[in-house]
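DM from R.C. (forwarded with permission)

"hey, sorry to bug you on a friday — could you get me a structure for this? deadline for the figure draft is monday and I only need the backbone to look sensible"
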Amino acid sequence: MDQIIQIDGFIALYIFMLAGFVGHEIIGKVPAILHTPLMSGSNFIHGIVLVGAMVALGRAVTPLEQTIGFIGVFLGAGNAVGGYVVTERMLEMFKRSKDKKS
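My reply, with the result:
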């Protein structure tokens, strides 16, 4: 019993805009010194976005849907990899100088 929930275009646009405003308000209140650790700690969200993009690409039928799905997978993968690169660079900053040499 595979049920697919259909969301009307205006409702999807409303949810997208609401998520954008809420995200902007939440991130805007985070001090600059905590922004990098917060974003590097949220790499799991990037993985969830990537899985969702892969599911959307797997269900795509038309060439337009496939193109949008491919772009979503590509950007989601880049976002996840970039988050781990930023985390690695941030952790390098906290190593002592004698630890870096060895």
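R.C.: lifesaver. The helical segments are 9-28, 32-41, 43-58, 63-93, 97-101.
me: no worries. The chain has a mean pLDDT of 79.
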